Structure formats: structure tokens, C-alpha cells
């Protein structure tokens, strides 16, 4: 029995991104480990620590027994505290220790994924993400690793891989959360449409429609009379959606047509990552 085809795409995408992270880590020197990233409160070392810790938990390794300092300003929720443990426990590790652990974790996790025999619909429970199928979990892992690869690339001035398979998976993950942003969080009017026209390495046009009940859905069909249209590039889109920047900082990269008050509410709620 081999890995189910619907899982293989996510596994391949994850592999490409995590190997890219390993390559970036192997080239780090001195102070680059402590360089700040756009991921709030995290350095390059912290992002890599998070990737290691997340994959160790996916492997079923025991969580570290570790007490967090009280002065971590960026930790604002229980989910954040849970995630931070794997990061803080590695803050005093040396560069060689970090790269060795990352490489070993990738070897172990890759072996586990090559031998994955469970059905895509197998139910999993994650302490932060909640209940989901194995197929969804692997997509989320590909998304998470790709976003952190991009965090590292921006911090280190080494752009690339903006249109990989993991980038496309990330697009779909983010689009899946868009109806809630528009219909529920921003309270777009009932029977209205909001269009997102995204260009660059990953191009797409999507319309979020709010029905008579106030429920949102997203499709590929253009709208003849959208209440708001956003036009922006792919990198700006995912940076906003992942909480890596604020709308006011990239205002020159986001073109808005239509109801500016609604557009402001949408952008204020655009960050969807934990």
C-alpha cells in the first residue's frame, strides 16, 4: 500500500519548503540567527525552532517540560503560549545544534510521511487547530512551513519560491478563511460581493459573496457590481493574511475601489493565522 494520491501533493510541497528552510539554515552565520523576522516577536532562530517543534509534535515526540518567561509581549493567548514553548526552549541553542536538530527532524518526518498508510479522511485532533482530517492537517503543515520559509527569506534578503506547490496550497488555505473575514468579521452587507484581484507569481481572481442570510462563500466568477474590489500582488496578499504586515504599511500596494469603510473593516480583520 502506498501513500494516498490526495496526500502526496501536500507531502511533496512540504518537502520542498522544509528542505529550502534547511538550506537557508545551513548558510546562516553569526548574528543572522538573531535577525528579526516579520513573524511577531520571532527571530530567524525562533522561526526555525517553531518548524522543528511542530514537526517533532507531528512525529508524536513528548513536548518539552519548560516554563515560559513572563515578559514575552507577543504571547497573548493560550494558543500562543502552547506554540511558544517549542520556541523558547531552543533560544540558547547554538547554530550547529539548531541545524543538526532540523536535519535530523526532517529525516525522521520524511520517513514517517513516506510510510503514511492512513486514509485521507482519518480524523486527528490538534491542541491549537482543533479537529481535522489527515488530508487537511498535511495541507496546513505545507502551508505553515511555506509561510515560515518566506519569513526567513524576507529576513535574510533571499527571495524565492513564491509560486511553488506549497504556495498554491497556501493560497487555497487562506482563501478558505476569506468568507468569514468578509461576511462575519467585517460584516459586509447581505446580498453583496467583494472581489480580490491578485497578480504576481500566483495569480487569481476570487469573489466573496454574502447571501441573504449573511453567510459568505467564495468562487471564481467575477461580479458585475462588487461593493469593494481589492487589487494587490500575491506577496502583499499573504503577508496581510498571515499577519506579517499591516494595511497602512502597504497602502501603496493595495488598490481599493468601492466602499472604503467596508474595505477598511475587511483589512482590519484580514489576518487569519493564529
From TrEMBL:
Residues 15-153 form the Mycothiol-dependent maleylpyruvate isomerase metal-binding domain. Coiled coil: none annotated. It holds the Pfam family MDMPI_C. GO terms for molecular function: metal ion binding. InterPro entries: DinB/YfiT-like (IPR034660), Maleyloyr_isom (IPR017517), MDMPI_C-term_domain (IPR010872), MDMPI_metal-binding (IPR024344). Residues 170-264 form the MDMPI C-terminal domain. This is Tigr03083 family protein.
Amino acid at each position: 500500500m502506498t501513500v494516498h494520491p490526495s496526500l502526496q501533493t501536500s507531502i511533496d510541497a512540504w518537502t520542498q519548503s522544509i528542505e529550502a528552510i534547511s538550506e537557508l539554515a545551513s548558510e546562516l552565520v553569526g548574528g543572522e540567527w538573531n535577525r528579526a523576522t516579520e513573524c511577531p516577536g520571532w527571530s530567524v532562530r525562533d522561526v526555525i525552532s517553531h518548524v522543528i517543534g511542530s514537526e517533532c509534535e507531528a512525529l508524536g515526540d513528548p513536548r518539552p517540560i519548560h516554563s515560559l518567561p513572563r515578559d514575552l509581549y507577543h504571547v497573548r493567548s493560550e494558543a500562543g503560549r502552547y506554540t511558544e514553548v517549542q520556541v523558547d526552549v531552543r533560544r540558547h541553542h547554538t547554530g550547529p545544534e539548531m541545524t543538526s536538530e532540523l536535519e535530523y527532524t526532517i529525516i525522521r518526518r520524511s520517513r514517517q510521511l513516506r510510510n503514511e498508510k492512513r486514509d485521507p479522511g482519518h480524523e486527528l485532533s490538534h491542541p491549537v487547530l482543533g479537529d481535522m482530517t489527515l488530508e487537511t492537517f498535511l495541507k496546513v503543515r505545507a502551508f505553515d512551513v511555506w509561510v515560515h520559509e518566506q519569513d526567513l527569506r524576507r529576513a535574510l534578503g533571499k527571495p524565492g519560491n513564491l509560486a511553488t506547490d506549497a504556495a498554491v496550497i497556501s493560497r487555497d488555505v487562506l482563501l478558505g478563511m476569506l468568507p468569514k473575514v468578509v461576511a462575519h468579521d467585517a460584516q459586509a452587507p447581505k446580498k453583496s460581493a467583494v472581489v480580490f484581484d491578485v497578480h504576481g507569481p500566483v495569480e487569481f481572481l476570487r469573489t466573496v459573496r454574502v447571501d441573504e442570510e449573511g453567510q459568505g462563500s467564495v468562487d471564481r466568477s467575477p461580479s458585475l457590481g462588487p461593493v469593494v474590489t481589492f487589487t494587490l500582488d500575491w506577496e502583499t496578499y499573504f503577508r496581510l493574511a498571515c499577519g506579517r504586515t499591516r494595511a497602512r504599511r502597504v497602502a501603496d500596494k493595495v488598490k481599493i475601489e468601492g466602499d472604503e469603510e467596508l474595505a477598511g473593516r475587511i483589512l482590519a480583520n484580514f489576518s487569519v493565522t493564529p
